[in-house]
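Sequence and fold
=================
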Amino acid sequence: MIPETHIDPDNAWSDNSPQVTPQALDELPGRLILRQTVSHNSKFPDLPGELRGQIDIFDDQPIELMEQRMNVSETFSSHKKVNNITKSQNQNWEEIISKVLLKGKSKGLNE
């Protein structure tokens, strides 16, 4: 993000959310925290690599689950077609969305 400056950001004509006052812009470099790209702590030298491996496993799981869901969904869709049932049923969709949102919220996720 490139900060923009304005003497009165709240009353700026353009997008005021990324704007700061000239004084705040002047103070900004002193508030920056510069971090190293690698750790030199010998007690856990490859912790980021281990954690990245765990994250990679989690990243693959949603794709595999979506593939399984799509297979079931296609079977369900075929069943509906054979039995002359509409593909989309709004009430069911609304129930699914509500259930997913509630479950996500209970897990600390936002909408």
Q: What stands out?
A: The radius of gyration is 25 Å. The longest helix spans residues 47-82. The mean pLDDT is 85.
